[in-house]
Design goal:
alpha+beta; eight-stranded antiparallel β-sheet; about 20% strand
Length: about 375
């Protein structure tokens, strides 16, 4: 029997370099989901990862989610991409928002992964905001935690813990009607501002600037409930059909009888779900790619034997677009789930944690794991290193 891969030795260390030297443990204890934190030079001498031209090129693609926000006098306007052309740089008060840049650029993905002291189940994406002078998206609040990293130029942030979250009626964006800031900061490249959910804020560009937003998933329980009911449709089994051999003559033919209501209620109350149902649902739900995500199969195809030889020399890595999680004996990848034995689970958990495996680790892979890896490679879920 092969010795299981020691997962603990493969788990990446938490990154305090994006917190200005503060430990992730202290950040989680004192700030996460609680209060804002301004970190001067969170990333010293940081420079924008993408040029303006590269960002604009992403905004022109139909597989990239982008928005253009502009303020015309006192009226907010928003358009959805893709954008063949964008306003001139000299035109004031417009902002380009490009969502999920980490899905399309290795540099952006590497930056996002530096925030993995927050679990992957909560980590969402990296959005880049490019704004001309005085550009912004108006005073608003987010329903999730966010890190706002200044990448280029300067942005002035005003923030406040106001309770009145009433929005401007008819606006295409969620603009706060009565914004009451209590603090103001000007961020330079490398500075970062953390905001917990529902903390009001307004960022205005002081000249052309780029801001990177690291956002986190926070689905509503309503969304989870609806998705869970869809998930459970496949497991519900109520084999019998409604019958009423004891039916009696009624004086009110349009009335639904109490007997019928009771009988149907008794049958529907037989529908039950378990903790195991919730565990599998949540893993599949949280690893499911967004509707806009498409995987690219490899240009070069291998036979299974050639693929095995290649990974035993080069190793593998998860695609930028792949989400891989695990819970108990179950692994989840891009919305699919499967159980694995002890040795296979250890190896694949290491892949999920590190998002890559070297050749030495893959030398321990079983035939079942190699078969799965080959299928994932053909689907574009993993790549050769």
């Amino acid at each position: 029997m092969k010795n299981p891969t020691p997962v603990s030795s493969a788990v990446p260390a938490t990154d305090s370099t994006v917190l200005g030297g503060m430990t992730p443990s202290r950040f989680l204890r004192d700030y996460w989901h609680k209060k804002p934190l301004l970190i001067r030079q969170a990333l010293p001498e940081f420079k924008a990862l993408l040029s303006r031209a590269e960002l604009f090129a992403l905004a022109a693609r139909d597989d990239v989610e982008s928005r253009l926000v502009a303020k015309n006098k006192n009226r907010w306007e928003m358009q959805n991409g893709p954008f063949a052309r964008l306003p001139q740089a000299g035109q004031k008060e417009w902002t380009l928002l490009v969502q999920g840049v980490n899905l399309h650029d290795d540099r952006a993905d590497a930056l996002l992964r530096r925030f993995r002291f927050i679990p992957d189940a909560r980590l969402d994406d990296l959005m880049i905001s490019y704004a001309v002078d005085n550009g912004g998206v108006g005073p608003h609040f987010d329903s999730y935690d966010v890190f706002l990293l200044q990448a280029e130029g300067q942005r002035r942030w005003q923030i406040g813990a106001q309770q009145d979250l009433t929005l401007v009626e008819g606006a295409p964006l969620k603009i706060l009607r009565d914004f009451a800031p209590t603090e103001t900061f000007v961020l330079d490249p490398g500075d970062m501002l953390y905001l917990p959910p529902h903390y009001a804020h307004d960022g205005v560009a002081l000249g052309p600037c780029m801001t990177y937003s690291i956002g986190f998933r926070a689905p509503t329980y309503q969304e989870l409930g609806e998705a869970f009911l869809d998930f459970m449709v496949e497991t519900v089994a109520l084999p019998d059909r409604y019958a009423d051999a004891d039916l009696r003559l009624t004086k009110n033919p349009a009335e639904i009888s109490k007997v019928m209501l009771s009988r149907v209620a008794d049958e529907l109350n037989k529908v039950r779900f378990t903790d195991e149902d919730i565990r599998i649902f949540l893993g599949e739900y949280l690893s499911e790619p967004k509707a806009s995500v498409f995987f690219d199969p490899p240009l070069k195809t291998f036979t299974p034997a050639a693929f095995t030889n290649a990974i035993l020399k080069r190793g593998i890595a998860l695609s930028r677009k792949t989400q891989m999680l695990y819970s108990g004996r179950t692994l989840f990848i891009n919305g699919e789930s499967f159980d694995a034995g002890r040795e296979d689970k250890a190896l694949l958990s290491a892949l999920a944690d590190c998002r890559r495996l070297d050749a030495a680790a893959l030398a321990q892979a079983s035939a079942d794991v190699l078969e799965s890896l080959y299928a994932w490679y053909q689907d574009g879920w993993i790549v050769l290193r």
